[in-house]
């Protein structure tokens, strides 16, 4: 396993609670849209075995052509040891990334794509949308639906409806409106539905989609292959 040590080159305050940490591109490091990585803080590998409290599974919110690895995360006032350390990091501080993989690449199958996310889960979809804007081949249209009760919606300059690009962005701040919207989107019995959020959020979305007749193979989760059946077979 290769561990890439790299430096923070910029910290973007997306909303009062959400920051994006931009990291230098280490030589030889590559990724594709929808990738996640293990993001670790200094000291995580100093003992006999890795200190798991200093490692988090994070989505990469940028694409390689942006020349920076973006890690977008919510840091609340009361937070874990990991987030407390992260909040105090500055430009020039070192972090590590390793085991990078994409479970949710953009499928180009001549279908409509629906991106369903909760809160900062939208960071996983940012690269998919940018990839679609750059090259819309074999994607009929794309619709993003995000629920965020804070109402501090993320990436609103990218997630902005663009009829000329066959792209629609929808933000809601409550569960009732959100699940009504999911049911409406699920009237497309041939669409592909990407879902990113907490495990509870995934389960609820899958339940609603399956009730509407959407098949398991049309639902794409940010989970390893071996984890998917436990969600999709319910």
UniProtKB/TrEMBL annotation:
InterPro entries assigned to the protein according to its UniProt record, in alphabetical order: FAD-bd_FR_type, FNR_nucleotide-bd, Riboflavin_synthase-like_b-brl
Signal peptide boundaries: none
Residue span, FAD-binding FR-type domain: 1-107
Domain of life, per lineage: Bacteria
Gene3D superfamilies tied to this protein: Nucleotide-binding domain of ferredoxin-NADP reductase (FNR) module, Translation factors
Designated name of the protein: Dihydropteridine reductase
